[in-house]
């Protein structure tokens, strides 16, 4: 199982925003330099996070991105879903339906993983990163 680079960058971007001491929005160029990623690519990721209400954006010369109010409750799973979507990691392609024993095992495992990712919040990570 592998998450996309976009998810990796989204998680790191959210942590960078959480750890920011600035009360002003942080520009995409600054964030991109910290992650060594293209500003254009990071902008696409940030657009998804803005759409999900996790990040706010301000345009203009002093514009940039900042976390929205209540960011402390954002979980890793929220961020992953914002980037990857909410579809299951495994789907039985043999059309066995809900009786497929393999699919049952895979879905149960996925639920356990999602529980852990839901439990881990951005605030928890920010506390341990200081």
UniProtKB/TrEMBL annotation:
GO CC terms in record = cytosol
Q: InterPro entries of this UniProt entry?
A: Tscrpt_reg_Rrf2, WH-like_DNA-bd_sf, WH_DNA-bd_sf
Q: Which GO terms describe its molecular function?
A: DNA-binding transcription factor activity
Record's superkingdom? Bacteria
Q: Which SUPFAM superfamilies match?
A: Winged helix' DNA-binding domain
What PANTHER family does the annotation carry?
Answer: RRF2 FAMILY PROTEIN, WINGED HELIX-TURN-HELIX TRANSCRIPTIONAL REGULATOR, RRF2 FAMILY
Name of the protein: Rrf2 family transcriptional regulator
Species in which this protein is naturally found: Neobacillus mesonae
